[in-house]
Amino acid sequence: MSSTMWDQRYAAEEYVYGTSPNEFFRAALEKLTPGKLLLPAEGEGRNSVYAASQGWKVTAFDTSTEGRKKAMRLAEQQGVHIQYQLAGYNQVLLPEEHFDCVAMVYAHASAADRTQRHRRMLSFLKPGGTFILEGFSKEQIHNRTGGPRDVEMLFSEEELRNDFQELSELKIWKEEIELQEGPFHNGCANVIRLIGVK
Length: 198
Description:
By secondary structure, this protein is an alpha/beta fold. The protein has helices at residues 3-10, 23-30, 46-53, 65-78, 111-123, 157-163; strands at residues 36-39, 57-62, 83-86, 99-105, 125-136, 168-180, 186-197.
């Protein structure tokens, strides 16, 4: 989806993916000591605002102006501070090996861009830092509960293993879950989860 399409989606008054954090992200973050966190494609801010409330120093980015507006509003309502750049994957300016954790939550890309994006996000992670990812697996194409309608944009274990091969303690697994993340992520879904250390 283009930033214009995301702006149209996020222009709604309601938070279209809810205001609660993604469950897998929340559970993974609980096991880590708060430090510097990067959240690419952060949309309306539900994950960044939650992380900031847990003591993380959060940097987020997205191409959607409307998404950023809602994220900053949510942060203000919750009384937390987040840094949020309006930028795409190739434009975002961040220091290398700077973050203790990078988390990509439903940040899908075209097959042509996927590996490059994942490797660029890895470059911002400190050695010893943790990478967290949750997205839709290719099986999600059979569901109508969220995610891209192009199977090439959905993840396989093999693709993620290739993209994140430099991580140690790399765990990648698929699950069928019941999503309850606002009107656009709702119902039975096939997801893939990844966690690893640089």
